[in-house]
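notes to self, project folder thing:

trying the whole complex as one job this time. last attempt i did each chain seperately and stitching them together was a nightmare. two parts in total, labels are on each line so i dont mix them up again. if this works i'll redo the older ones the same way
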Amino acid sequence: MSSLDLYQRDLLRAAADASHAGRLPRPDGSATVNNPLCGDKITIDITLAPDNTLSAYTHETEACVLCQASAGLIGSTLEEATATLITETHQAVTQVLEQGSGTLPTQAKGFGIFAAVTDHTARHACVLMPFEALTQAIKEAQAKTGNSS
Amino acid sequence: MTSFDPLAFRNHFPAFAAMRDEGRDFHYLDSGASTLVAAPVIAAMADHDTRLRANVHRSVHYWAEQATQAFEAARDTLAAYFGTPRAEIVLTSGTTQALNIIAYGLSDGLQTGDEVLVAADNHHANIVSWQIHAAAKGATITPIALTPLGQIDEDALAAQLTDKVRIVALSHISNVTGWEVDLNKIGSMIRAKAPNAAIIVDGAQSACHWPLFETALPDLPIDFYACSAHKMFGPTGVGMFWGRGDLMENMPPLLGGGEMITNVSFDGTSFAQPPTRFEAGTPPITQAIGFGAAVGFLTGLDHRAIRAHEVTLASRLAATLAAQPPLDTTILGGADFSRDRAPLVSFAITGCHPHDICQLVDRNGVAMRGGHHCAQPLMTHFGLLASTRASIAGYNTPDDIDAAINAIKDAINLLKGT
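result (full assembly):
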């Protein structure tokens, strides 16, 4: 797999999607994750609805294209998803990275673009950072709101 | 000045022939992380592991005796290269382990109220080791301020030097900017104003061209100096530090086991003299022999000619990147490589992440490093999270620089959609 394949149009488009960039004024949960390899940073704010779905999501990302694309795709495909679906997507994306393919939930098929990252193990963390931050933010929100998955 | 032929120099490094055989473009600009390995090093290690494989300082059979002699001969070679007594050369797994051994040993004498000054351009190894060991004794860790270009702010340092300063941790050459610290000048200032301070120098980026400095380590106003073989055309897994004998005499060991003792009992254990005291367990024998071969190889080189060649390439790369407005590039430490600077060109391009640049140039066979380079405080100083670094060695050519420039431009075009 060449680096050219890695930086395909869909991935660059997802990275450029700024529709969920920024911070929420009153999040239920927030989390910041750093990449120890390069110092990249992502902060995610969320709110959870009473039915435990992701009712609002923003990310503030100082990171590479892969991390930006992952954070952007979460916004465009997983807002209004349940915490359970988010966990399933996180696991499926991890599988895609490790094995080059995986069974992504229908709603999250767009994450299949990261199959091109499989051979670049040093970059897996870039894709997964937003999920790690989102998972932490959901836990914080669930603790605050009393919801649980 | 002696002319230097980088293409002829490449013949010493089998990696070039191997990549040519594979049909792979190969523009290796990551020697600041690890240099390529020289042929005599590979040969020495293979010979040892083929014919004389045995542990050292233990058994009495022929092979063990030969291994011990080869291992200690490597120490002799290092001592000659750096101009030190052989008993003051401690073999370690690398610079990081060396700095941790030093930090642990010197921190033993620290107490609350003592101060440790750490240059903010240091690699994490010369920061975190002090945070772990010196802070545990109640000492205060204080950064040494930098100038806008990332050099040590000498006025600020002078104001920080008092009787309370017990440790000053410096980087001889920054692994990000390439700026060299004048150890004679800075060390003398520290000696004069902070007479109780031990001066510890991370030499990871300077050891490869030590003959350039035309001095022996003990003649410098410093107390410890650490380096790694893998940045000196040698193997990974081995490094060393030099320390003043009187200071090492009073340092406890960080690691226990193996030959670092004189006697062990449950009533108490006594330690061997340096350097053995700091070489616990079976040492990296094959790697140490390779390290000796690497330094033997370095000893025969014209370092002045090589450095001139390297600086020419670094200057060309930095000037080209800095002069092209579409790139909107910042060269960390500035684009002037004409003096006191090793050929490390770190740069940041607005809107293009270093990892993306490095990943994209890789398709053209250009090997560079992106990230914080284990120097996050220095990145913070420059207002960055990360940068891209091209680090140059004698085997690099103008073709490598052109390939890097073209690949960087292509990467930017793709990332910025131009």
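what i see at first glance: Chain B has 14 helices and 15 strands.
need to look closer tmrw
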